[in-house]
Amino acid sequence: MITLYSFGAGFGLPDPSPFVMKVELLLKMAQLPYRTETGGFGKAPKGKLPYIEDDGIVIPDSTFIRWHVEKKYGVDFDKDLDARQKSTAWAFEKMAEDQLYWVIIDDRWIDDANFRKGPAKFFERIPAPIRPIVTAMVRRKLRTTLHGQGTGRHSQDEILALATRSVGAIADFLDDKPFFMGSEPTGVDATMFAFVCGVLCPHFESRTRAVAERRDNLRRYVGRMTARFYPDLSELAGCKAAA
Ligand SMILES: N[C@@H](CCC(=O)N[C@@H](CS)C(=O)NCC(=O)O)C(=O)O
Q: How many CB atoms lie within 10 A of CB 56?
């Protein structure tokens, strides 16, 4: 059975990491049996989660995990899409992963109030005497990463302006379709669902969240995806599961 190494449920989400949520969704879509395991971060081959272990093979990174699942199990997440649709799906996916992701990180890690009720919790298992030092060190590393990536060099208003474009593009493209590419879920829905949930997560206060909340179709989409893939949950990211 596949083992998905994850952070574990948090902040009202199946996982705080949209990348872990994406992979869980892909495994659900592929209808493959899997179990989740927390505590694998120290052994992560690329120093990041998620990674999976499948029959003794370890695969890190959500995109490579997807390709592994497609190849090994003969799953085609995009079987009904043509080349143009696949290109569009890829571009949206990478916009979420390489741009919106850093907005989410900025919201959760840089804003003091969000940090205290969010990522600070990750450090609770560290012995109290060294906890403040480790917490400050990791937070500083995140700031450096955000600066290196570029988002950390923008003002909060500039970050919001960029995020508003991305959230708007997702909402406009989704429009009134049931799923991102049409009437049935495809691979890109795993990513879109994970990142839209991440943005809408009511645990955190953020202006990007307020922008997303104004797009009703995003909330209905999360509800629809929740009903389909997390039938035991009545709602996710504050969006009621669609009947
Ligand atoms: N490209 C990777 C990104 C994974 C990623 O950024 N994971 C974050 C959590 S959301 C992580 O583990 N960060 C830990 C670190 O950078 O130290 C993927 O698609 O899986």
A: 5
204 in ligand 1 pocket by Cβ < 6 Å? no
pLDDT, tens only, 25-37? 999 999 999 999 9
- C-alpha 68/C-alpha 76 separation (Å) is 11
CA-CA distances (angstroms) from residue 159 to 90, 104, 119, 207? 23, 10, 20, 10
Instruction: Specify the residue with its C-alpha closest to ligand 1, atom 1.
Output: 61
Mean local confidence (pLDDT), 101-114: 97
Query: From the CA of 176, how far away is ligand 1's center (Å)?
Result: 31
Cα distance between the two ends of the chain: 31
Amino acid making up residue 42? G
pTM: 0.97
Q: Is 17 in the pocket of ligand 1 (CB under 6 A)?
A: yes
- The single residue listed with the structure tokens 């003794």 is 56
Question: If you average pLDDT over every residue of the chain, what do you get?
Answer: 97
CA–centroid distance, 242 to ligand 1, in Å, is 30
Residue nearest to atom 15 of ligand 1 (CA): 48
